[in-house]
Amino acid sequence: MRFLSTIPPFNGIGETVRKKLVAGNWKMHGNLAQNSALLLKVAEGTASLDKAECAVCVPFPYLFQAQDLLRRTVVQWGAQNVSQYPSGAYTGEVSAGMLADFGCRYVIVGHSERRRLYAEGDATVAAKVGATQAGGMIPVVCVGETLEEWEAGRTEAVVTGQIQALLDGLGAQAYDRAVVAYEPVWAIGTGKTASPAQAQAVHRMIREVVAQGDQRVAERLRILYGGSVKAANAAELFAMPDIDGALVGGASLDAGEFLAICAAAHESR
Ligand code: PEP
Fold first, then answer.
1. Residue 89, domain member (yes or no)
2. How far is the C-alpha of 216 from the C-alpha of 182, rounded, in Å?
C-alpha cells in the first residue's frame, strides 16, 4: 500500500470536521408493512443523534413512503440507482428529476452489484454521478476491489482507477458534492470485514488521490466504509481518522442494529 503525504492527517482538532454519515442500503428488500415499522423505529431512535447524519436508501416504489414517514425527522432518504439520462424512451429507468420529486438527498451510484450484475462501468458511473448532482442530490459513489483483486494485491490500483475515472470525467469538483463509499466486494454480505487499519489505509489513499485534483475538496470529502458493518464493529471503524461513516446493507434492515451503528457514529471522535 502506498501512502502519499499531500495532506496532513486528520486529527479532529482545528482540521476540517466531517459529520459522519450512516446510510442504509436496503437493496431489494421490504414491503409496506415492514418498511413502516422499520422507518418509525429508525426515526424515533435517531431523534437525539445530532452529531451524525443517518439516511436510508430504499427501493424506488417506497420513496413516497420514506418521504411521508421521514419528512419531519432527522433521517434523510434516497435511492439505490438512477438513470444517466434526464428523460426519454428508456423503459424501466428512473431519472434524477423523478428522485428529486420525492425529496431524495442521496443516490447510491456504482454499487458493486450494479457494476457486476448490470455491467455498469466507470463511464456509466460518472454519467450517473453527473445526473444525480444536476438533480440537486448527492451521489454515494461506491468503489472497491473484488476478492481476486484483493488477493492479487491490486486494491490500490483498482480503487485508484475507479476514483481517477471520476476525476478524469467530471473533475475534482465532482467530489465536492459527493460521498464516496469504499466497499471491498469480498466484504459485502459475507460477514467478513476489512480490519479498521486496512480500511483506513484505503480511505487515506482515496483522499490523497482526490487531493491531487483539489486538496480542499479532498479534506471535506466524506468517505464511508461498507462491507458487513454491524453494531459490533462500527465503533472501531469509526475511530479511524479517514472513515467518515458507513454504507450498511444487511444490518440496515434491523432497527436495533442500524440504530446502534448510528449511535456509534454519533459518539465517535
Ligand atoms: C452494501 O450492500 O452496500 C453492503 C455494505 O452490504 P452489507 O452491509 O450487507 O455487507
1. yes
2. 20
**Could you tell me if residue 14 is inside a domain?**
no
The total number of structural domains that make up the chain: 1
29 within some domain:
yes
Told to judge if 183 belongs to the known catalytic residues of this protein, a careful annotator would answer yes
How distant, in Å, are the alpha carbons of 61, 87, 95 from that of 91? Answer: 16, 10, 11
> Which residue in 162, 147, 146, 249 sits closest to 205, CA to CA?
162
Q: Which distant-in-sequence residues (6+ apart) come within 8 Å of 113 by Cβ?
A: 27, 188
pLDDT(11) > 90: no
Phi, psi for residue 22 in degrees, rounded to 5: -115, 115
Strand partners, 52: 20
Q: How confident is the model over 217-261, as pLDDT tens digits?
A: 999 999 999 999 999 999 999 999 999 999 999 999 999 999 999
Which of 113, 183, 208, 257 is an active site residue?
Answer: 183
Are 140 and 23 in contact, with CB atoms under 8 Å apart? yes
Q: Largest Cα–Cα distance in the chain?
A: 51
Residue 236: its H or E element: helix 231-238
Q: How far is the CA of 20 from the centre of ligand 1 (A)?
A: 17
Instruction: Find the CATH number of the domain harbouring 255.
Output: 3.20.20.70
Burial letters for 94-109: b for 16+ Cβ neighbours within 10 Å, e otherwise? Answer: bbbebbbebbbbbbbb
Q: Encode pLDDT of 48-78 as tens digits.
A: 999 999 999 999 999 999 999 999 999 999 9
**Residue 32 belongs to domain spanning:** 19-267
Residue 30 lies in a domain: yes
For ligand 1, atom 1, name the residue with the nearest CA.
249
C-alpha cell read off for 159: 480503487
